[in-house]
Write a structure and sequence with these properties.
The chain is of the alpha/beta class. The chain has a domain of about 180 residues: 3-Layer(aba) Sandwich (Rossmann fold), CATH 3.40.50.300. Helices cover about 40% and strands about 25% of the residues. It has 9 helices and 12 strands. α6 links the parallel β9 and β10. α5 packs parallel to α6. It is globular and about 60 Å long. The N and C termini lie far apart (about 50 Å).
Length: about 270
């Protein structure tokens, strides 16, 4: 069994602290959800785990199978078993999907090993068929000219091919219509299993339709303020965050103060 352990993590960008003492443990086979209003640090947490260089970790640690990954580059973390599906996937003109995925898989192999071309395409086509992705997409450049839904399907195809230990889905439902969200939710469910842990970062319950979280965590003002199960996610979807704010007035007051400060700064810049 693998584990991803976040220990009292504090993260800043510039002089602004965004994540403020967050702790979380995720084990193989588990589905976790992190929910919370905009600006609470959810996406920051995902990027920090993946190794984004713009964020400064002021204290705390992130352990993958007992080993700290904070000194590892993003590609080293990916080879160790981490995967991040982006909220806004980048376009890579000139690089075909087939070559991109092949290079990603090759990077995870031992030195001197080579991917068997026929076996690779057999597996790729099988995953594309399972996800109902037209095989013609293999020759298209990564996300170049893709719709929002097509980009998110490509993220899920990467997940299917790479089979990481820990998959972090950062608001994968963002910008998608109901049909596309339902597709992504079902696809993620088909890819989950005892060797894959999934952390779903979302505002809504829609992505959790086929991926019932064993644990739901609610972030407010940069920290996790409440834990629950799938029922908590349903409550947030149905009632919003008013109840959470009422139960955690100190964090709610801090959130309000931060929002007002951001408004003042925006007005000054304008």
């Amino acid at each position: 069994m693998s584990s991803l352990v976040i220990k009292d993590l504090h993260v800043a960008i510039g002089e602004k602290e965004i994540v403020k003492g967050l702790s979380l443990t995720i084990n193989s086979g588990e589905v976790h959800a992190i929910m919370g209003p905009n600006g609470t640090g959810k996406s920051t947490l995902a990027k920090v785990i993946a190794g984004h260089p713009d964020y400064r970790i002021t204290s705390g640690d992130v352990l993958l199978d007992g080993e700290s990954i904070l000194e590892k580059e993003a590609d080293e973390r990916a080879r160790a078993g981490l995967f991040l599906a982006f909220q806004y996937p980048s376009e890579i003109p000139g690089v075909s999907i087939a070559n991109f995925l092949r290079a990603a898989l090759q990077a995870r192999m031992a030195e001197g090993e080579e991917i068997d071309a026929s076996g690779y395409y057999k597996r790729l086509y099988a995953k594309m068929d399972m996800l109902k992705i037209d095989r013609k997409f293999t020759s298209r450049a990564v996300n170049d000219g893709f719709s929002g839904g097509e980009k998110k399907r490509m993220e899920i195809l990467q997940l299917a091919m790479l089979r990481p230990k820990f998959a972090i889905l950062d608001e994968t439902d963002s910008g998608l219509d109901s049909d596309a969200v339902r597709f992504v939710s079902k696809a993620v469910s088909r890819l989950s299993g005892p060797d894959v842990a999934i952390l779903i970062i979302t505002h809504h319950e829609r992505l959790l339709e086929f991926n019932k979280p064993q644990q739901t965590h609610v972030m407010l003002a940069g920290r996790i303020v409440e834990h629950g199960d799938a029922q908590l996610a349903h409550e947030l979807h149905d009632q919003g965050y008013a109840g959470i704010r009422a139960r955690h007035p100190d964090a709610a007051a801090e959130e309000e103060a931060l929002a007002k400060k951001a408004e003042v700064q925006a007005a000054v810049k304008a």
